[in-house]
Amino acid sequence: MRGANLGRGHLLVISALTAGLLAATGTPAGAATAPAPRFSPGAPGAGDPYFPDMGNGGYDVGHYDIRLAFSPGTGAIDATTTIFATATQDLSRFDLDFQGPLTISKLSVNGRNAAFTRSGAQELVITPPYGLRKGSPFVVSVSYAGVPQKIDDPALGVSGWVATKDGAVALNQPIGAATYYPVNDTTADKATYTQTITVPAGLTVLANGEPGPTTTHDHQTTFRWSMNRPMASELSMLAIGNYDVTRGVAVGGLPNITAIGRSIDTQPGQGKVFNETTAQIVQWESSMYGQYPFDSTGGILADVGVGYALETQSRPVYDQDTSDVDGDLLAHELGHQWFGDSLTPVRWSDIWLNEGFATYSEWLYQEKFNNVPVQETFAKAYADEKDWSGKVADPGRDHIFDDLVYNRGAMALQALRTKIGDRAFFDVLKQWPTANRYGTVSTRQFIQFVERLTGRNLASFFQTWLYQPGKPQLTR
Ligand SMILES: [Zn+2]
To answer: From ligand 1's centre to the CA of 133, what distance in Å?
Structure first.
């Protein structure tokens, strides 16, 4: 993410599967050798101290199939989300995250109606008709409808489903996904996605990944988008409205789909410029960070009114209210495709691993395209920074989007470069995302990675720059 103020973020299959799953997951009768399973509830959170209710325990999602019809007149959706998961314990009960006023009309597990309750702000508590054995796959299907409501968090801003003048845009970092689909809302549980979205003919739908066929019936058009690489829910995205779409290619023939909202006042030819600049930056970043991790790229310039841009997977969204939608900002959000999207911190306290590297991408962009040396940008940031009170690698729940994380994160990287030298540093920039492609990471893992790669003990360096409040001394 980068904000305006940031100093410059089968239904058909179910019936076929059900019979087999019932046999596999039902309580075994008279099993003489295996101990009887002890079914217990999955945890209602994934263990992140900043967001204790986010995510859940006891299962792992493999795929989300979101089918949603949107009515711009009322702002309502009518949806069925089908979740393909595997139990990671003997489960008597489990939670999904789902929040806001949407009403659930039907919920099934492996094709059989399941009991459910909604508890607290975001827990959807599901009790299947029988226990789910550890290791067994299961399918949850939830049908629901209503007008989704965005989240407006006093510290973290607006996220989730945001109604716009001509449709809606969904931006889900950190806690928005559950405003329009039931989800295991934790970066620890990445999954693939299919989003099949029906809107009145004439509107356009964009989402993560690659487009499928578009069909129109009775003045309703259905768009289908697939993300076939693991994606954290906070990086899922939808944009519905009037858009001019530009299709091009980036490095290695990568499909490059960009779009600009028609209501946005732009110069003639901006669609082509936006598309080509995206391609140019993806190519340049690939040369530094290693192979681009997804099967398509692009970007969406939209009138959302949230005041930030977000690194939604494979296709960032740039709100037109963001300070400047320019090369720096594209370099930031596209840099996140490696740092944040492909590799993702498992805890939100480690978000500097996203934002420090994305901000550093801006600094590199300034050097490459505007002749401003990175060291000069660093020196200015170091001189201008007034607040050295927080911890970069543990900023606190309400500070995950603060300058602390962005600028001091990037400063820590430039200080590391000075310490270990250009050659080792650029090795880190390429090897770290390559080694952790599609995975989850922590600051501890990063420190170990750099120490192994350089053969140096950097404990006190990282202690000073990441964990200790106060202005670090500059030493070589
Ligand atoms: Zn960012």
So the answer is: 40
Helix (H) or strand (E) holding 196: strand 191-200
Identify any residues that bridge with 145 across adjacent strands, giving them in sequence order. 78, 103
> How many helices (DSSP H) and strands (DSSP E) are in the chain?
9, 26
Residues for the chain: how many in total? 476
Ligand 1 centroid to residue 339 C-alpha, Å:
9
Residue 443: band (very low, low, confident or very high) from pLDDT cuts 50, 70, 90: very high
Q: Residues 325, 155, 51, 177: what is their CA dihedral angle, to the nearest 10 degrees?
A: -40
Report the distance separating Cα 325 and Cα 245, nearest Å: 17
User: How far is C-alpha 266 from the geometric centre of its chain's CA atoms?
Assistant: 28
Helices of type H across 40-147: none
At 476, the pLDDT band (50, 70, 90 cuts) reads: low
225 alpha carbon – ligand 1 mean position (Å)? 24
Whether the predicted pLDDT of 321 surpasses 90:
no
The secondary structure of residue 471, as a DSSP letter, is: P
Contacts of 369 (CB under 8 A, 6+ apart): 327
Ligand 1 geometric centre to CA of 315 (Å): 13
User: What mean pLDDT comes out for the span 51-64?
Assistant: 98
Amino acid 475: pLDDT: 73
pLDDT band at 25 (very low <50, low <70, confident <90, very high): very low
Q: If pLDDT is split at 50, 70 and 90, which confidence band does 104 have?
A: very high
Helix H or strand E encompassing 78:
strand 76-87
**Which domains are seen in the chain, by residue range?**
2-28+38-243 (2.60.40.1730), 344-467 (1.10.390.10)
Let me know: does 314 contact 295? Beta carbons within 8 Å.
yes
Between CA 461 and CA 466 the distance in angstroms is 8
What is the pLDDT of the chain when averaged over all its residues?
93
Q: What is the residue type of 187?
A: T
Is residue 275 within 8 A of residue 205, CB to CB? The reply is: no
* CA 45–ligand 1 middle distance (angstroms): 25
- The DSSP line for 208-240 is SSEE---EEETTEEEEEEEEEEEE-GGG-EEEE
pLDDT digits (tens, 9 = 90+) for 167-194: 999 999 999 999 999 999 999 999 999 9
- The residue among 198, 195, 256, 252 whose CA lies nearest residue 228 is 195
CA 354 to centroid of ligand 1, rounded, Å: 7
Q: Which letter does DSSP use for residue 27 in this model? A: P
